[in-house]
Fold these 3 entries.
Entry 1:
Amino acid sequence: MTIPATDAPSAPRDRSTAQWWGRLLDGIFFAILAALAWGIVVVVAHGGASMHVVQSAAKAPFSIARAAIATPQPQQYIQRTEWTTVGDQVSLRIYPTEAGRRASAGFLGSDGGWAQVLAVTPDADKPGMREQFVCHWRFAELVEPGKASWNVEPWRPVVNGASMIESRCNPGAAEEVF
């Protein structure tokens, strides 16, 4: 027996309504995300958090256009690096800039920071060194604000993230004292 189309269950209509609501919520989510991204572009274009994000509705489109046209200059996160020896072990001292400290406190830019370390000290690309750097990047300013250098060592063991945090970014032995 064939069921006429008018007697078909209403599930397709319900599914269609659910899909419509899902698309609407997705649209709202992406609109909010775009607004947040727009706000970040405006802040970055005007020199950071000290700028008043909403100065006037008339200026905003021009700020966005100027930010899109300008070639962004990468922040200088690393002032310098220097290899040193503590006892019979080598250690790389990484001296962050104020911009690096601010970015690290906001958990931003660790890849850029590590790239800058490698640009001036290519022989720092050893197992575990990047992970130690990222750990220092994320936590050094929280635990010890203004610490002169973030020190990473090639002789330290490669460990998982939890062990890295438990060891205060110094797996295998306590932090060296200079």
Entry 2:
Amino acid sequence: MRVSAEYFKTLISFIATSSYKNTMSEMLNYKLQGSGPNVLLIHGLFGNLDNLGLIARDLVTDYQVLSVDLRNHGLSFHSDDHTYQAMTDDIYELVAHLHLADLHVIGHSMGGKVAMRFASDHADLCKSMIVMDMAPVAYKQRKHDNVFAGLQAVVESKPTKRSQAMQLMAQHIEMEGVRQFLGKSLFSKDGYLQWRFNVPSILKNYWNILGWETIKNCEIPTLFLKGANSDYLTQEHQPLVQQQFSNAKAHVIANTGHWLHAEKPSEVIRAIRRFLVNN
């Protein structure tokens, strides 16, 4: 049987666009290290799996640590859908693929909300949870408009050097630490610097990220780690925390803001380890 070149062209096109390929390509990028009880680390908005690297490098001596890039971040796939249900489903698919259970789930900021939703939906897979500076509430105030302006300036100007990108961001983002954090997600493609995270999708879904759908009570042992100087987790959030997480306690890291794990890693790691040992 002779097969034409046109047939092969059509076949290759079909394979390239098949649902099978799409399914395989939409597995989250991840890093699995160490051995022992399972720990899942989930980064926050505009981050990637390296953002909790200090915690991972410490825990890996005693635990098997799974670090992930959430959708639209790092080396994971881009999508127009960026809801907590979608991100939770992504995590579940990866955990099932790796045959993991008895997870100690740790999430920061947006990743904290993913952790909370995952623990609620899949309590049978979770042994404990640590939420870093995030509350199970819908926030009403936009907090990242200056960041979006800086990101968009880079998108529009297409800088070829990192220094150029940093200067563009400096016109909109005052804090150098924030600029340095964002700069970790720059990479060179087609002759200029681009963002690894999906700026259009994150901007379109920003109110989804700030938002929250109240979940049923979750009885998993939970620790809320709060940065003392941060307003992401406050006393007024306590009733909603208790309503959704009846087996929760809180620990405050003094003299830190929202990035408590970067500002005082030793104190945060000590609190994490103490909680894990007891759960």
Entry 3:
Amino acid sequence: MAWGLLLVAGLLEVGWAIGLKYTQGFTRLWPSVLTLAAMTGSVLLLGAAMKSLPVGTSYAVWVGVGAVGTALFGMLLFGEPASAGRLLSLGLIVAGIVGLKFSTPA
């Protein structure tokens, strides 16, 4: 259950990170409202996951999911470069997330 909460928290982090682009400095109402809601949900779910998972693992996975997802959406939505080096680096982050999952009790 905690891992599921952590995954959703990470996905919400992707949502708010991408949402920041659409808020235009929090000058657009609905993108700002949705971004703030995603921020709140993300942190609340991270906190809930930390009840049974180690803080270091939880935070690292949350940041990792958010970083990988945000980078991929940046490539898809905003035409950011998808070079081999970037993709390899994102793959290494995913490998780290998987490694943490399999080496953490709970």
